[in-house]
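Protocol step 4 of 5: obtain the predicted structure for the target chain.
Materials: sequence only (see below). No template structures provided, no constraints applied. The aim of this step is simply to have a reference model before the mutagenesis design in step 5. Sequence pasted as it appears in the construct record:
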Amino acid sequence: MATQSRSGRSRFEDFDRYTAATYAVYLLGLAFFIFPVLWAISMSVRPRQEVISVPLRVIPSEFTFEVYRNVLENSDILRWVWNSLKIALLEVAGILFLVTPAAYAFSRFRFKGKRAVLLAILLFQMISPVVIVIPLYNMMAQFGLLNTHIGLIALYIGLQVPFSVWLLKSYFDTIPEDLDKAARIDGCNRLQTLWHVLLPSVMPGIAVVSIFNFVFSWAEFVMAFTVLNDSKLFTIAMGVYSFQGQYSTDYRAIAAASVIAMIPLLVMFLALQRYFVSGLTDGAVKG
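Step 4 output (structure tokens):
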């Protein structure tokens, strides 16, 4: 027998309405993010005469992969994909090298000014990179790092370290300090405790930090556009932008390049999906 609420409706009816509203929001959000992807795929495989079709047609009348062949043969898109892959992997490696011991120290050590330093790191993260792009450009010029991948990687690491420290620290905070004490009793020093005992436990957090920073580096445009001016050094985001002409634009080529640019991200997400989901869940519940 269904329990009656104050308004006279059964809990079963309220639950159904709540569930329906929840799924409606889910579907709306899913459509918001999925539709641009489907539209790019549709645009990349439709004939030229159907680029702008009235009425709007998501599924083209016929499929052609001619534009993919043109993009692969007549542009440096594979070079740009390789450049982005190299920059993203080195950026992630650099961030993990710097952030892991820093997050461990902020989580485990008690020292004077710790709270102030954490707040200062958080404040730095709130500054938009666009605001400091001119000082960063001047600094890169003084160090001779303009138009180099090393300079761009250093910029990305500098910009993403504050966020990554806060994110990874929250995962270290979820691990009981008794685990550290047990490792110390067994003869481990601080470094051995971090490497052999704690790192396996925070692996979901490391996966989340890696994915966030990989995606950031892959999609970032403003800093790359500021630092790089040689087309052979372009990232994939700059490469896709270069398909836009001054007087005419081949939207099918832009769509095909965008689809090619998505593939490495999809592969990485599928490979680390298990760690990513568990890492977000742990961080949300325990962080």
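Step 4 remarks: The radius of gyration is 24 Å. The chain has a mean pLDDT of 85.
Proceed to step 5.
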